[in-house]
Amino acid sequence: MKNRKKWLLSFLHALFLLVLTAMWMNSPNSYGDEKVVIKWPALSIRLFSFTDKSVSKDKYLFIDLSHEKATIPSDDGTGNIAITDRKKLSDFFNIIKKNPSKVKFIFCDVLLKGQSDEDNALQQSIDGLDNLLFATQVNQKGIVEQSAFRLKQGLTDYQASDGDFIKFNLFQDKATRTLPIGMYSQLNDHQFDSYGPLHFDNGKLSLNYMIVDYKILFRQLFQTNGYHVSRLSDLLVVPADELVEKYLKGRIIIMGDFENDIHDTPFGPMPGSLIMLNTYLSLLDGKHLVSTIWIIYLLFAYTLLSKIILFHHSLSEKRKLKRFGIFIKSGIYLVVASLISYIIFGHHLQVLFVTLYINGIAICIQLLKKPFNWQNVKKAFTK
What we know:
3-stranded antiparallel β-sheet, 2 domains, 15 strands, alpha/beta, 6-stranded parallel β-sheet
């Protein structure tokens, strides 16, 4: 076969691989082996380029609600259940309400379930606060839980892959936006549109499932000279004017339980509130956007890989790569391609699925070239 036809077939196969990649990246699926490809490049870049310093510590205030508890009667009347103290929340929001323009945004990772004597006071304190967003979830019936309070809500649900949080589903429900999308849209004046499976951010094609890039790690919250972390009770004893000017002014406020609401990620345990913030930061960096130049890069990488795999017998003979095995060769190639994709374009590639597919194709090609016997099958897996 002429070389020109080989490249044409390789390019057509690359288009198919591009479709597979789009389907895989826009699905919740991810596997443990891929965590290595996701974790270490991100940590290495942070280490050598100091990208974590680009997240200004003065932009955020973390308020720990883990010890701010009150009790209300349980729904079945058999006892009491613990909830976040709503009086303290209302006291805090009343301070902000007197100075609404001083605070940039408030994300309160609290599910306001049940009823308490402080509900009316809390409702009055949040009325008119346009820059306040509460968390909500999907119940066991698959329905988004709507609060009895009049407030803005954002979905915080995620799907674990192999026990770890890796991807966040940006568009889960048409009526209720996810919390990172809500923050991103309001703070940066972005408009999201969806047309079936396609999603757009200000007219630019967007992924649905995004691998989160952790610019702020849990351990950084408690380091010396780290981010501002305070308990709500400690803040409420500060005079209101001082609290606003010293702690709240110009900041994004993240309120959540940093002791009990912990989730596993490739970067270690992480509070749910911090996961949502890192997802928002990934949106700021454009990790969800699909650029034309990135698609061109993928087509180039997949065309070269297809040429090697579909016509690998001639290349292998010239370069004496037979003994390394098809799986190792294609796996290494895709890992390198993923590293380049992340370093240049900010996108991780999920290499396991494509690697398995490529190896299946390569093995089939080898088996078709020779009469079937078990010795030839063995050689196809080891060549």
